[in-house]
Amino acid sequence: MSEAPAPTPSARRRRTFDTFADHPWRTALAVAAVGVLILILLWDWNWFKRPVERAVEARTGRSFTIGGDLDVDLGRVTTIRADALDLGNAEWSDEARMAAADRLDLSIEVLPLLRGQVRIPEIRLQRPQVRLEIGPDREGNWSAFAGDGGGTPIQLRRLWIDDGTLLFLDPEGETEVDVRVASQAPGENDAAPPVAITGEGRWRAAEFELEGTAQSPLDLQDTDSPYRFDLHARAGATRAHARGSLLDAFQFETFGFQMALAGRNLEHLYPLLGLAMPPTPPYSVDGQLQREGTTWHYRDFSGKVGDSDLAGSVTVETGGERNLFKADLVSKLLDLDDLAGFLGGAPESGAGETPSPAQEAEASSSGLIPDTPYELDKLNAMDADVRLRAQRIEADLPLDDMDAHLFLENGVLRLEPLNFGVAGGDIRSTVRMDARKSPIRTTLDADVRGLNLGGLFPDSTLAGDAVGRIGGHAKLVGNGNSIAAMLGSSDGELAIGMGKGEISALLVELAGIDIAEALAFLVTRDRKIPIRCAFAEFAVADGVMTSNALAFDTTDTLIVGEGTIDLESERLDLLLRPRPKDRSILSLRSPLVIGGTFSDPSFRPDLARLGLRGAIALALGSIAPPAALLATLELGPGEDSDCGGEYAR
Hints:
Number of helices: 12
Low-confidence stretches: 515-525, 611-641, 644-649
Strand content: 35-45%
C-alpha cells in the first residue's frame, strides 16, 4: 500500500488559515496575549515623558524636562517617579532654571480620578532647588503659576523634602535670601510634616542669618487656614523673632504676624529698613507687624529702650519719594537719658544705666552740651510724624512729664510742641531745624510758666522748702550741625523772673557770707525771708550771653549781678554783689564770683576785697578789739527798697 503524498507548503497555509477561521475568538485571544507579552517585555514609561513635558509647558508657559527616568507603579494608589526634573525660568531672568529636583515620588489615588477628584497622599522631593526672584518690573517669576481658583482643587496630604534649597532674589532691593529646607517628623496634630529652615543672605545689603520652623509648604495652598511659622533672624547685633500665622501667605502685599525686635541701637535699623532712627541704648520691643500694599504697620508693640518703657504703634508708608514714618508712642516711665542720642549727646554710663558700648565710649569724652553732629543725609532720607508722651520722667532735673510732637518734612524738622512739666509748672517750646543745607539753621522759642522755686531743688534742705513761681521766655537762632554748635553761634534773648515768695534766711546769709546771722540760724533754727522779686535778662550774640539785668531781692538782702555766659566754650563769668538790708556784725559782704565751666563751676568770694577787709580788721584789732567789729558792719540801703532798685542795673 503506497503512502499518501506529503502536503505542500500552500496546503499547510490553507489548513492553518482554516483553523483560525474556525476559531476566531481563540485566535484573537492568542494574538492579544502575545501582544500583551510583547508590550510587557518592551514597555517603557519613558515613552510618556514628552507628552508630560508638553502638558506642563502648555499650562505654565515655561520649559519643562524630565532628564532621567519616568516610572509608574500601578495600583489603587499609583506611584509615579521621575528623575532629574528641570523647570524653566521667566524670560527676563538671567538664570535659565527656576526649579529642579533630583527625584520626584508622587502617589495618587486611582478610583477618585473616575469621579473627577485628584487625591495625592504624598509627594517626596529629593534635593529640590527653587529660585524665586523679582524682575525689573517688580513682577515675581512665580506669577505664571497663579491660578484663577476655578475647578476642583487638588488634595495634597503630605510633602516630604530631603535637603531642599530656596533662593529669593530682589536685586533692586539689594536682597538675597538663601535657605535650606528639610522635613521633620510630624507632630501629633500635624497632617503634613513641618519643615526646618536654616539660611543666610543679605537684606538691603546687610548680611543676616535665619533659622526656625514652619508648617509643611503644602499648607500654603489652603488660603482660608492660617499658616504657622516660628523664625529667628540675626543681622549683626540686631535680632528679630517672627512667629504666628499667615492667611494666604503668597499674597506678599498683605500679611501680618507677631514680630519681636532687639538690638544695641535703633540707629542700626537704617541699613536694614531704611528708617533714620536716632542713636539709642539697647532696646527690645514686641508687636504685630502687618503690611497693606506699600504701608507697613507695627501695631500695639511694647518693650524697653534703655531704662525706659515704650509702647504704641508705628506706620511706615513706602510709596512716596521718601518713606513716611508715623508713630504714636507712650512711656509710663521715661529715663530722659535715653533721649540723649536724639539731641546728639551720650547717655550716662554709670551704675543703673543701660548704654550701648559705643555710647559708653562717647559718654566718657562728651561735654555737657551735646556735640555729636546730626547726619544731614538721614534727616533728608525720610519724612516723619511722631508723637511721644511720657507720664513720668527719671532725670537729674525736676522734670514731671513730657509731650513732644515731631514733624520731619523735606529735611525740615519741627518740634511742635516740645513741652515739659517742671517743678509743678511747665516749659512750652517749639523748635525748627532746617537741614536742607549745611549748617543746620535752628530756631528755639520757649516759654517758662509757673515753676515752683522749691520744686527746682527737691534734694536741697535749704532750698527745697522755698516758695515762689518762676516764669520766663527764650528765643534763640543758631547755625550748626550739633546742639553745641547751634548754641555756640546763637543770637537772641533770654529772660527769667519771679514774683513774691519765700526762701531760707540761712541761704541768703550764706550767699552774702554774713557770719553772724548765719551762725545764729545754725545754732537756733532757720527762718523764712520773703522774696520781693528776682529776675535775669540776657542778650545773646554769637553764643555769648551778656547780662542786661540780674537781681535777687529779699527783705533781708539785695543781690545784683553782671557778667557773661559763653555757650561755645561752656564757661561762666558772673559777679554777684550782695547788699544787706539789716545791720549785722561779722559780715563779709564781698562780691561772689561764679566761674569755671558748666560741668565744673566754681563759687568763690572776691578774695582781693575780702582780704582787704580782713587786714583792716586785724589792724584795728591790735588797737582796740571792740572797734575791730566796725570793719565788718554794713548798714544796707534800707528795708523798703524797691524790687531791685538802682542796684539791678
